[in-house]
Amino acid sequence: MTHSHNTAETLHELGYRRTPQRMMILEAVERAEGHISAEEIYEQVRARYPHVNISTVYRTLELLERLGRVTKTDMGDGRVRYHSMGKGHHHHLVCQKCGVIIDVEESVLNPLWEDIMHKHDFKVEMNHLAFFGLCGKCR
């Protein structure tokens, strides 16, 4: 059973219709190599389904985020990008000069989350986080 099939079933079970637009939007997020913007999703879906509008894309992404199927991250360029939760948790290092984005595995930050939990009795719920700075080439 594929991840998109699971999401389709979840949509149906929660009383949401499995419209062609919703399924194409989900497929676009899941097919993306990395992160994808709502505008990029819109262009992909519109190529196959010309009657879709950008507000449908945004509403569907909000629904998929509430269902825990996608996360969104602001990469610092003013455009939010989306990522399928089926591809795992990771965080990002974003160079403010050249714009390169480096993925950082969740495990690297686990000691930080544990330290916060022990010192502050606070459990961090962070699916995606972007750290901004300068990469080795730009320093």
Q: How would you sum up this structure, described in words?
A:
With 139 residues, the chain is an alpha+beta fold. It folds into two domains: 3-86, Winged helix-like DNA-binding domain superfamily/Winged helix DNA-binding domain (Arc Repressor Mutant, subunit A), CATH 1.10.10.10; 90-133, Dna Ligase, domain 1 (2-Layer Sandwich). It is built from five helices and six strands. The protein has helices at residues 3-13, 20-31, 38-48, 54-66, 106-120; strands at residues 36-37, 70-74, 80-84, 90-95, 101-105, 130-133. A three-stranded antiparallel β-sheet has the order 1-3-2. Strands 5-4-6 form a three-stranded mixed β-sheet. Helix 2 (20-31) packs across helix 3 (38-48). 19% of the residues are buried.
What is the topology?
Elements: H1 3-13, H2 20-31, E1 36-37, H3 38-48, H4 54-66, E2 70-74, E3 80-84, E4 90-95, E5 101-105, H5 106-120, E6 130-133
Parallel strand pairs: 4-6
Antiparallel strand pairs: 1-3, 2-3, 4-5
Helix pairs in contact: 1-2, 2-3, 2-4, 3-4
List keywords for this structure.
three-stranded antiparallel sheet, Arc Repressor Mutant, subunit A, alpha+beta, Dna Ligase, domain 1, flat, single chain, 5 helices, 139 residues, 2 domains
Distance between the termini: 46 Å
State the helical fraction: 40-55%
Number of strands: 6
Structural domains: how many: 2
Could you say which overall geometry the principal axes of the C-alpha atoms support? flat
Going by helix content, strand content and strand pairing, the class is: alpha+beta
How is the main sheet built? 3 strands, antiparallel
Whole-number mean pLDDT: 83
| CATH architecture title of the largest domain | Orthogonal Bundle
Radius of gyration: 17 Å
Low-confidence stretches: none
Q: Give the helix tally.
A: 5
CATH topology of the largest domain: Arc Repressor Mutant, subunit A
CATH homology superfamily of the largest domain: Winged helix-like DNA-binding domain superfamily/Winged helix DNA-binding domain
